[in-house]
From TrEMBL:
InterPro entries named in the record: DSBA-like_thioredoxin_dom, GST_Kappa/NadH, HCCAis_GSTk, Thioredoxin-like_sf
Lineage: Eukaryota, Metazoa, Chordata, Craniata, Vertebrata
Keywords, sorted A to Z: Transferase
GO biological process, any: glutathione metabolic process
GO molecular function: glutathione peroxidase activity; glutathione transferase activity
Species in which this protein is naturally found: Opisthocomus hoazin
Family named by the database record: Belongs to the GST superfamily. Kappa family.
Protein name: Glutathione S-transferase kappa 1
Cellular component terms (Gene Ontology): mitochondrion; peroxisome
Record domain DSBA-like thioredoxin: where: 4-195
Superkingdom of origin: Eukaryota
Length: 206
């Protein structure tokens, strides 16, 4: 959520063409576990989870992003499937990509700020309405998420992320001077700017 918000703030400040590429985190974790022994979400490690809880609150204030998390919040996060939501976002990417940014932001808001179960169809439709989609379009997209075309597209973008070296999320790939550069984590945006020759103006640039 931090990375999404900050990159959106910089997309008209830096000389970049920002493109969202929906990928399934579960698939990335499963694939890279073969190569990275014990590649588990940080929240599954007790001491790391304890630290993350404090760190996320600090980052929410620093990045000015409305993330709210409390004790036991990681269990909610790990226990909620994002596959349906990612397929829904993939379907919008295939049909009406202009909605990709507001839809992605609204899913994050619902999940990280309002703690809603984004795997439920009624909540997916509520997200779509809030992002400006018509009821007809939202319903059509919901029907598309079980189609082979959408499933295969999400699988392809997930495999592409792995090909670039992704082992978790957020993963940002900057194509610069004919070469891809992978950055992992929301705390690498300043380094991203340095690599592409752009100035970091803080998390909330004027």
């Amino acid at each position: 959520f931090f990375t999404l918000q900050v990159l959106c703030r910089y997309q008209h400040i830096w000389n970049i063409n920002l493109r969202f590429r929906p990928a399934f985190l579960g698939g990335i974790m499963q694939a890279t576990e073969l190569f990275l022994k014990g590649n588990k979400p940080p929240a599954m490690l007790p001491k790391r989870a304890e630290y993350l809880l404090k760190d996320i609150k600090r980052m929410a204030k620093y990045y000015q992003v409305p993330v709210q998390i409390s004790e036991g919040g990681f269990q909610h996060i790990l226990g909620t499937s994002s596959l349906g939501a990612m397929r829904f976002i993939t379907a919008i990417d295939m049909t009406e990509p202009r909605y990709l940014e507001p839809l992605s932001r609204e899913f994050w808001l619902r999940f990280w700020s309002q703690h809603e179960d984004i795997s439920q169809p009624e909540n997916i439709l509520a997200v779509a309405r809030q992002a400006g989609l018509s009821s007809e379009l939202a319903q059509n997209l919901l029907e598309m998420i079980s189609s082979p075309a959408v499933k295969n597209r999400l699988k392809e973008t997930t495999e592409e992320a792995i090909k670039y070296g992704a082992f978790g999320m957020p993963a940002v790939v900057a194509h610069f001077n004919g070469e891809p550069h992978l950055f992992f984590g929301s705390d690498r945006l300043e380094l991203l700017g340095s690599v592409i020759g752009e100035k970091w103006l803080g998390p909330v640039p004027s």
